[in-house]
C-alpha cells in the first residue's frame, strides 16, 4: 500500500509580498501541472484568505508509478513557484529500504529535500501493532 498526504502554500517569492498578477499566473501554471500529472485521489488547489494552497492525498495498492508522479507534482509546484513551502508525507510498504517508515519531503523556498519522519516512524509499533512484509 502507498499512502500520501501533502500540502503546499504557493508563493512566487519567499518575501511573502507577491504581485497579485504574477501569483495568479503561477497558480495557473500549477493548475496545468496538476491537469497534466494524472489522476490522484485528492487534489485541491484553492485560494484561502488571499493565498493559494495545494492539497494532495490518497492511497494506492501499488505505489511505484504513482509515488513518482506524486513526488514529481510536488516538486514541480516548487519549481513553478519558487517561494513555495510545504510538506509531503509518504509511506510505501513495498519500498524494501523504507517499508516501515514514513518519508517526509520538505519544500522550502521551492526546493524539495527528503527527510526521515520523527512522528509516525517506525510505522509498527507507532501506528500499527505489528507489521509484516
* Helical run tally: 3
Structural class by SSE content: alpha+beta
How large is the share of residues in beta strands? 25-35%
Give the averaged pLDDT, no decimals. Answer: 92
- Give the SSE order as H and E letters: EHEEHEEEH
Distance, first to last CA: 11 Å
Oligomerization state: single chain
How many discrete structural domains?
A: 1
Give the second-level CATH assignment, the architecture.
2-Layer Sandwich
Helical amount among residues, as a percent range?
Answer: 25-40%
Shape: elongated
Low-confidence segments? none
Count of strand segments: 6
CATH topology (fold) name = Alpha-Beta Plaits
Strand order of the largest sheet: 2-3-1-4-5-6
Molecular structure report:
This protein is α+β, with helices and mostly antiparallel strands and 133 residues long. It contains 3 helices and 6 strands, in the order βαββαβββα. It has a single domain, classed as Alpha-Beta Plaits (2-Layer Sandwich). Helix content is 30%, strand content 34%. A 6-stranded antiparallel β-sheet has the order 2-3-1-4-5-6, covered by helices on one side. Helix 1 packs antiparallel against helix 2. This is Immunity protein 7.
Amino acid at each position: 500500500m502507498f499512502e500520501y498526504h501533502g500540502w503546499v502554500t504557493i508563493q512566487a517569492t519567499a518575501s511573502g509580498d507577491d504581485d497579485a498578477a504574477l501569483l495568479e499566473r503561477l497558480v495557473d501554471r500549477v493548475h496545468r501541472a496538476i491537469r497534466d500529472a494524472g489522476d490522484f485521489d485528492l487534489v485541491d488547489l484553492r485560494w484561502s484568505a488571499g493565498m493559494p494552497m495545494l492539497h494532495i492525498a490518497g492511497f494506492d495498492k501499488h505505489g511505484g508509478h504513482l509515488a513518482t508522479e506524486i513526488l514529481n507534482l510536488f516538486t514541480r509546484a516548487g519549481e513553478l513557484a519558487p517561494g513555495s513551502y510545504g510538506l509531503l508525507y509518504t509511506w510505501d510498504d513495498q519500498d524494501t529500504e523504507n517499508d516501515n517508515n514514513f518519508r517526509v519531503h520538505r519544500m522550502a523556498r521551492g526546493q524539495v529535500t527528503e527527510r526521515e519522519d520523527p512522528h509516525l516512524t517506525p510505522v509498527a509499533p507507532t501506528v500499527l501493532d505489528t507489521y509484516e512484509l
